[in-house]
Specification:
The chain is mostly helical and about 270 residues long. It contains 14 helices and two strands. InterPro entries: Lysozyme-like_dom_sf, MltB-like, SLT_2.
Length: about 270
């Protein structure tokens, strides 16, 4: 469902995101409750129109946006990252991920070999991320992504960061690569490996070669994840356990050390 009002290429989208956030902060005022959200949307849409987002895209994108109370609640209470490593591994079902990951690696050997050949990233860490983020694509979220990202852009805690994500999401909608009513995770993460919108713009790959980047596709999601890791310093053939060179790329994926260690351990067990 392409928006013919916008003819941005993938490179053009990336350029707009980068240029847009080299400029002074948006004029719309952040808030810490739902009261000011409608006024913020009105002001933000004016700013976004001046930045090159089409009126049609803005009308479609914000038609069903509501203040995402659940997103704010989850943003304030990310308790799983405070668990011990063993507790986190148990909570995430690490043993199941390893078992299923080994089967998927064997079943999709050609795809993983092609990804490693192109990006230098082996199957293990990709399967670890895929399994932990969405249960290998079984559940990618049920939250209205536009509402989640717009709410976090309005919320004062991380307004600048999520304003960038909101611009990226609007550009993906304008390109026709994302539905305005797409459902994802509570912070606006998209697809089978849970990319934030700006990372779709910067690192998204058309892995199945159908002409678009769709992270609901496992081929696109896994190739994009490998591309992300390579861009964050992954070196072909290097180790990725804590203290080894490629662990830095895993640190780029998620800031929580317990999550980083889980990717490394699960990945190593899958790779054998």
């Amino acid at each position: 469902m392409n928006d013919t009002g916008g003819k941005l290429t993938a490179a053009g989208i990336a350029a707009l995101v980068m240029i847009g956030f080299a400029t002074p902060a948006i004029a719309a005022q952040c808030g810490n409750n739902s009261k000011g959200f409608p006024a913020w949307i009105t002001q933000f849409k004016k700013e976004a129109a001046r930045a090159g987002i089409s009126e049609r895209t803005l009308d479609r994108a914000f038609a069903n946006v509501r203040y995402a109370t659940k997103t704010i609640s989850l943003d304030r209470n990310q308790r799983s990252f405070k668990l011990s490593f063993d507790q986190f591994m148990q909570k995430r079902g690490a043993n199941t991920i390893i078992s299923q990951g080994k089967k998927l690696k064997k079943r999709n050997a050609g795809m993983f070999d092609a990804i490693e050949k192109k990006y230098g990233v082996p199957a293990g860490p990709l399967l670890a991320i895929w399994g932990m983020e969405s249960g290998f694509g079984r559940f990618s979220g049920n939250q209205h992504t536009m509402s989640a990202v717009a709410t976090l852009a309005y919320d004062c805690r991380r307004s600048a960061f999520f304003t960038e994500q909101l611009y990226a999401q609007l550009q993906l909608i304008q390109k026709g690569w994302l539905s305005p009513d797409f459902k994802g995770a509570a912070h606006g993460e998209i697809g089978q490996t849970q990319f934030l919108p700006a990372n779709v713009v910067r690192f998204g790959v058309d892995g199945d070669r159908n002409g678009s980047v769709d992270l609901a596709s496992s081929a696109d999601a896994l190739a994009s994840t490998a591309n992300f890791l390579r861009a964050h310093g992954w070196s072909r053939g290097g180790g990725y356990q804590p203290g080894e060179g490629n662990h830095r790329a895993i640190e780029g994926w998620n800031a929580a050390s317990v999550y980083q260690k889980a990717i490394a351990k699960i990945g190593a067990d899958i790779d054998g």
